[in-house]
């Protein structure tokens, strides 16, 4: 039982509010979106259908899906204002800074600013959902000194994005792996970035401010930034033979092993097996056997030595690497997906809003008198 004034550092174990969007079940290691097991959604649905589900609570009918796809395809193009604003950012800034600035700019440039009813917020959510891939693809190409490729309204979400990045649609198993990653990353209850978005929304601020703040929260390596950190770590280990000595030294140095551990799941992240299966398909030609062997050996050693399981960022790091993305683009890919969960939560928060404002326990110096200026 809790006692008054008891402190829950990091809000660990604290239930802050109700939600109807997703359920993370620690006991069964399972995750459902609006009641549907996420693994089944990966098998049967496109990412567009899952986005609709998160926003509306039900899967779309054929007509609703067709209508949504039409709207999404028509909103992919970036206005000249936003592209010119982004082009003035320092060339070497992190792509997450580009995204954070882009969403902030879209908010400043929105003629419907101040209209925060559900219909307007849904339209703004679809707009960000449609434009984020264009921004990320432009950024991926800019980093390589390549001209941008404009969105193609004849292609679905995944194919269009991958074409904008790489100039062609990759093989089917890569498109599939990408789509599965988008569905798995889409939503995960009151994680740090989603909670951030809900805190901002609870002051009755606007949806762009909430998403901008959420991007900032996701950037950190304890949260979304981990998928980039995983790839740096696998590169640092280099070879499967180096896993055991590397890990031994990492423990001596008290390093956090990126892509491992989770605040909620203590017996394994429910999404990891689905994503790891996609990684195995991408490496089935044997060309990246070393990477897969290192991946498996590190996971096995972490379990054996520390009893700590991998989280979703562990398989997505190498999957995105094998697809040809630059490492700093990995967390922006997470943003492209989580925009759906964030915006669903922002709209849910507004439905029955209560200002989020916890208490703190003061442990600083006791009350004292302000001295007069000495000397
Ligand atoms: C995501 O919440 C979500 O839903 C997030 C997410 C989503 O979908 O939104 O799932 C996405 O952010 C996944 C997490 C990505 N982060 C990382 O991979 C970074 C590495 N992981 C850890 O830093 C850590 O496990 C956290 C931050 C994920 C969770 O931290 P907690 O719950 O605060 O737990 P802790 O840090 O207090 O760890 C408990 C113990 C400690 O040992 P003791 O002090 O008790 O001896 O486990 C150890 C930790 O040192 N530990 C690790 C470890 N994770 C936990 N030790 C080494 N490497 C690790 N990765």
Automatic annotation (TrEMBL):
GO annotation terms (biological process): carbohydrate metabolic process; tricarboxylic acid cycle
Gene Ontology MF annotations: citrate synthase activity
Family matches, as InterPro entries: 2-MeCitrate/Citrate_synth_II, Citrate_synth-like_lrg_a-sub, Citrate_synth-like_sm_a-sub, Citrate_synthase, Citrate_synthase_AS, Citrate_synthase_bac-typ, Citrate_synthase_sf
Pathway as given in its UniProt record: Carbohydrate metabolism; tricarboxylic acid cycle
Catalysis performed (reactions): oxaloacetate + acetyl-CoA + H2O = citrate + CoA + H(+)
Catalytic residues (UniProt): 262, 313
Gene Ontology terms: cellular component: cytosol
Keywords: Acyltransferase, Transferase, Tricarboxylic acid cycle
PANTHER family registered for this protein in UniProt: CITRATE SYNTHASE (PTHR11739), CITRATE SYNTHASE, PEROXISOMAL (PTHR11739:SF4)
Protein name: Citrate synthase
Source organism (scientific name): Kribbella antibiotica
Taxonomic lineage from the root: Bacteria, Bacillati, Actinomycetota, Actinomycetes, Propionibacteriales
């Amino acid at each position: 039982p809790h006692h008054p004034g008891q402190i829950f550092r990091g809000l660990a174990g604290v239930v802050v509010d109700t939600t109807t969007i997703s359920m993370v079940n620690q006991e069964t290691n399972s995750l459902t979106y609006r009641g549907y097991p996420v693994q089944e959604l990966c098998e049967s649905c496109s990412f567009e259908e899952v986005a609709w589900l998160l926003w509306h609570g039900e899967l779309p009918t054929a007509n609703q899906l067709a209508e949504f796809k039409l709207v999404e395809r028509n909103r992919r193009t970036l206005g000249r204002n936003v592209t010119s604003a982004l082009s003035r950012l320092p060339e070497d800034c992190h792509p997450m800074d580009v995204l954070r600035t882009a969403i902030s700019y879209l908010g400043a440039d929105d003629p419907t600013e101040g209209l925060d009813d559900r219909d307007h917020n849904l339209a703004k959510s679809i707009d960000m959902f449609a434009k984020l891939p264009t921004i990320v693809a432009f950024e991926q190409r800019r980093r390589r000194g390549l001209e941008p490729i404009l969105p193609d309204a004849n292609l679905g979400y995944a194919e269009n994005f991958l074409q904008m990045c790489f100039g062609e649609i990759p093989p089917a198993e890569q498109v599939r792996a990408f789509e599965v990653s988008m569905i798995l990353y889409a939503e995960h209850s009151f994680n740090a970035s989603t909670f951030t978005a809900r805190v901002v929304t609870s002051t009755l601020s606007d949806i762009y401010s909430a998403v901008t703040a959420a991007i900032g929260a996701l950037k950190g390596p304890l949260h979304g930034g981990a998928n980039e950190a995983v790839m740096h770590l696998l590169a640092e280990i280099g070879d499967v033979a180096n896993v055991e000595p590397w890990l031994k030294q990492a423990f001596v140095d008290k390093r956090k092993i990126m892509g491992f551990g989770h605040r909620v799941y203590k017996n394994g992240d429910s999404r990891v097996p689905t994503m790891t299966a996609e990684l195995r398909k991408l490496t089935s030609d044997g060309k990246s056997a070393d990477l897969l062997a290192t991946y498996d050996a590190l996971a096995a050693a972490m379990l054996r030595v520390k009893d700590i399981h991998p989280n979703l960022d562990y398989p997505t790091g190498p999957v995105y690497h094998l697809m040809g993305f630059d490492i700093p683009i990995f967390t922006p890919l997470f943003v492209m997906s989580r925009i759906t969960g964030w915006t669903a939560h922002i709209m849910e928060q507004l439905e029955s809003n209560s200002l989020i404002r916890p208490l703190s326990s003061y442990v600083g110096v006791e009350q004292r008198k302000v001295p007069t200026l000495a000397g």
